[in-house]
């Protein structure tokens, strides 16, 4: 009997040991914080770096880390579509901007792996589709660019006479660095403002008969990227695929944060000068001068600060217009305080004018 009891006890200990849960090691990611500065980090360590205002590109699934300049383009010396663009600008609506941003910033968050991030993307996709349907355009479509995580990127394509492509983009996700996956992250400025900026420009662009009849010399795309906050994940995947497919992306304009004006400062359009194409940036300044009432000021945001860096990294010319100088940008991003009441809608409207002008001008340009 004693031997039976002992054996039973031994088996019990053995079974208990067998069902002990294994320690789950955190997933690791390879990131670039600058040329040649590659590190392996956990998701938690990513957010710690962002809290320290250190920008990075997640290159875990990207080809050939490092920047390239394999695709070159030349840009017009002056704007050439002022009559058409100035006829469209009055159609831009602050009411539409506010309405869209109210809904978009009311999601608990738009975190790229959360159900909220998926739901907000579905809502945004529906808005884009509704604009296309209302326009009656036959040369315009919208599709989801899916990723390994829940939130898809969204791509709207306005087919022109050639495959040369002009891209306007903004990121749709948001994050609260205190509680990334579940915390309240309205992301009204970062980057709800950029999202609605290009959405409203897209709507008005589709009221132009030359655009909707396919007369533009180039194809125009509007992108809303997933997972920017985690290291430019959505845009990185999109532009990597475009590079693999041999796509002729001749220009990319990024809109990340267009809604904040620091109290006591003069309203400006910040023009980023690092990790961008100098020729395209010079043309962007011409667009701002032609279609916005605001002056420009040069600024820098650092390596991998936003999705234009993904275009540059893939070899495509990029530029970025920003809400201010980088030093005067919103201090409330990545928190529950990045709310719609901090957004200056007349300021956002100026950026919709810039996007509209940029897309129309380069849509009809020889690139």
UniProtKB/TrEMBL annotation:
Keywords: Aminopeptidase, Disulfide bond, Glycoprotein, Hydrolase, Metal-binding, Protease, Signal, Zinc, Zymogen. Its EC number is 3.4.-.-. GO terms for molecular function: aminopeptidase activity; metal ion binding; metalloexopeptidase activity. GO terms for biological process: proteolysis. InterPro entries: M28_fam, Peptidase_M28. Residues 154-357 form the Peptidase M28 domain. Gene3D superfamilies: Zn peptidases. Its cofactor is Zn(2+). Residues 1-16 form the signal peptide. CDD domains: M28_AAP (cd03879). Belongs to the peptidase M28 family. M28E subfamily. Extracellular aminopeptidase that allows assimilation of proteinaceous substrates. Monomer. This is Peptide hydrolase.
């Amino acid at each position: 009997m004693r031997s039976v009891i002992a054996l039973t006890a031994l088996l019990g200990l053995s079974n208990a040991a067998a069902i002990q849960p294994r320690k789950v090691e955190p997933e690791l990611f390879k990131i670039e914080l600058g040329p040649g500065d590659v590190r392996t980090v956990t998701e938690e360590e990513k957010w710690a770096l962002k809290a320290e205002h250190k920008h990075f590109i997640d290159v875990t699934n990207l080809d050939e880390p490092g920047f390239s300049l394999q695709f070159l383009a030349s840009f017009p010396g002056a704007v050439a579509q002022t009559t058409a663009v100035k006829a469209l600008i009055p159609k831009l609506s602050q009411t539409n901007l506010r309405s869209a941003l109210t809904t978009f910033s009311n999601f608990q968050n738009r975190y790229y792996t959360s159900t909220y991030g998926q739901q907000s993307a579905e809502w945004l996709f529906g808005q884009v589709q509704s604009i296309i349907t209302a326009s009656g355009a036959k040369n315009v479509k919208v599709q989801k660019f899916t990723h390994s995580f829940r939130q898809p990127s969204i791509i709207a394509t306005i087919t022109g006479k050639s495959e040369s492509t002009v891209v306007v983009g903004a990121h749709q996700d948001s994050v609260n660095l205190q509680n990334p996956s579940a915390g309240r992250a309205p992301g009204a400025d970062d980057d709800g403002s950029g999202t609605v900026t290009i959405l409203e420009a897209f709507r008005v662009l589709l009221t132009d008969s030359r655009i909707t009849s396919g007369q533009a010399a180039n194809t125009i795309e509007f992108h809303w990227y997933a997972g920017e906050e985690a290291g430019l994940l959505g845009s990185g995947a999109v532009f990597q695929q475009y590079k693999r497919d041999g796509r002729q992306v001749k220009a990319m304009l990024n809109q990340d944060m267009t809604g904040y004006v620091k109290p006591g400062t003069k309203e400006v359009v910040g023009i980023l000068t690092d990790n961008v194409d100098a020729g395209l940036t010079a043309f962007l300044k011409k667009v701002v001068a032609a279609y916005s009432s605001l002056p420009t000021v040069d600024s820098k945001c650092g390596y991998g600060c936003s999705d234009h860096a993904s275009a540059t990294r893939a070899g495509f010319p990029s530029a970025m217009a920003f809400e201010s100088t980088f030093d005067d940008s919103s201090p409330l991003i990545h928190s529950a305080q990045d709310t719609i009441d901090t957004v200056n809608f007349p300021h956002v409207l100026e950026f919709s004018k810039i996007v509209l002008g940029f897309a129309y001008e380069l849509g009809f340009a020889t690139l």
